[in-house]
Predict the structure.
Amino acid sequence: MVGHKGQVVGYVRVSSIDQNESRQVAALGDVDRLFTERVSGKDVRSRPMLQELIAYVREGDLVRVKSPDRLSRSTTDLLALMEQMKGKGVDVEFVDNPALNTGTPQGTFMLTILAAVAELERATIRERQAEGIALAKQRGVYERSPALTTEQIATARERIATGVPKAVVARDLGVSRQTLYTALKGAGAYRD
């Protein structure tokens, strides 16, 4: 990729001790600094070399990776990483997927499309969850069990009658004020 002012920093990830990183290293070509990770790609936060790379890179640097799946298994995590790099003024180059390189208008466009697809997927999941909950409530199978027992509600009433603030009573019971209000009214899960 042309135009970067800083270092070329390579990142290699192999998922097991047996796996050899030489193919990835060869694909990266000449780099000023190489970070090699030997862990599975499940969680970005549990990869110390990637965290070290993020802390190391500076504006104008180029991070070179063989393919997007070496950086992240999840589209959402990949996009967050790309955004983090962009925020630092660092470009990312994928040897096997140049269409995603952040230093090009096409790469920026492709990443924008991926981000939109990921957001649509999250929104669709939330919508399905809400529909499922609504249907379960209609069938009467989504009743949450009450957080407070009858005895706790009676004790709460007594304490409130003696002047203890409802916020204090709720905190002592380990519930929100809203839950306490609902229980005192006999509404929701507290209906007889």
